[in-house]
Write a structure and sequence with these properties.
single chain, two-stranded parallel ribbon, about 15% strand, globular
């Protein structure tokens, strides 16, 4: 089994600034807000017909 990956780990790999709790363990990554939940990192992606940013609130609610 692999070591847990945290938000801080992902931010470091991406060279991104992290604002918030970097100790949160990420078990999966999705661009579909219906698949969001505790430990699942939702990435809002602008698509051809829909904008993932429109679904951020739903993803946040699913992670509670």
């Amino acid at each position: 089994m692999a070591d847990p990956i945290t938000l801080a780990d992902l931010a470091a790999v991406a060279g991104a600034d992290l604002l918030g709790d970097g100790s949160i363990v990420v078990s999966d990554v999705t661009h579909d807000s219906r698949e969001a939940g505790p430990g699942v990192l939702f990435c809002a992606v602008r698509g051809f017909t829909r904008d993932g940013h429109d679904f951020v609130a739903a993803a946040i609610a699913a992670g509670s």
